[in-house]
Design brief:
This protein is α+β, with helices and mostly antiparallel strands. The protein has a domain of 103 residues: Immunoglobulin-like, CATH 2.60.40.790. 18% of the residues lie in helices and 30% in strands. It is built from three helices and eight strands. A four-stranded antiparallel beta sheet has the order 1-6-5-4, with no helix packed on it. Strands 2-3-8-7 form a four-stranded antiparallel beta sheet, with no helix packed on it. Strand 7 and strand 8 form a beta hairpin. The protein is flat and about 85 Å long.
């Protein structure tokens, strides 16, 4: 019998497609890890503080004249939330208390989060901090940060000499 070469399944590419690719696999795992990290924290500018029990998700929307931050706090009373703006950073903190009647329960599954929370979002210094407004309705905090009109860039022609 003559040598027929590699088996048919190899010639059709199965082995090449399913061969171990350690560097490709490592790259895919690292990409997934980075994507999971940023997905969990909303954006690179919104970072959790270590030692914090919960990390509420935020939405940041920007218009020409303002930046709007929306953050959900289901089950958190308004008086348990603090909002501050200093040095171009918006800080939102507070606490969602664990229900006293549920402390002695044995849970088969518990997905709700309780405890302290804090989010700091770098907005930038071009905010008119005296005009910042915050509203809290139906468990959602909405903070509107108007942009300062003094810092708006103006377009102008520059003569070449």
């Amino acid at each position: 019998m003559a040598d027929q070469g590699p088996p048919l399944w190899y010639r059709r590419g199965w082995a090449r497609r399913h061969a171990p690719r350690p560097l490709v696999d490592l790259r895919q795992k690292m990409t997934q890890m980075v994507e999971d990290y940023w997905r969990g924290y909303g954006s690179p500018t919104a970072r959790p503080v270590s030692g914090i029990d919960m990390s509420p998700q935020i939405d940041v929307a920007e218009k020409d004249d303002s930046v709007t931050i929306s953050i959900e706090f289901p089950g958190v009373p308004e008086d348990q939330i603090d909002v501050a703006f200093s040095g171009g950073i918006l800080s939102i903190s507070g606490e969602k208390e664990f229900p006293p009647d549920a402390k002695d329960q044995h849970y088969a599954l518990r997905e709700r989060e309780f405890g302290r929370f804090e989010r700091s979002i770098a907005i930038g210094p071009s905010i008119a901090d005296r005009r910042i407004k915050a509203t809290f309705r139906h468990g959602t905090l909405k903070v509107v940060l108007p942009k300062s009109t003094a810092d708006k860039p103006t377009a102008r022609g520059i003569p070449i000499r």
